Amino acid sequence: MLVTFSSKAGADILMLSQHAKPILQIMGKLDGTDLPVRGVFMPEHMAQTIDKLERAIALTPPPNEDDDDDAPKDPIARPVGLRQRAFPLLDLLRRAKETNHPVLWEASSPW
Asked: Could you give the domains of the chain?
């Protein structure tokens, strides 16, 4: 299932629900395992939300790449860490904070 993050402050961000859930948990928007259909990050709470995500990124070690040989890996085969996964959303949150706009998210139907 896809999760769409949108705001008037920037372009929409699409993320698979399996990747969005941990990020939403870090930011305090997801308590259990079920993803709410919609949600919002309000401008007055944006600084706290950004801070939570930045702290989690700083504490998360980079993904293990298992470099047994010196041959360069194909970039598509490299693991993606929290820093890379959350960057577009973090950028949107920062822009929304500057322009005082909310950031909405909506999960699409799993069909």
From this structure: 2-61+76-107 (3.40.1760)
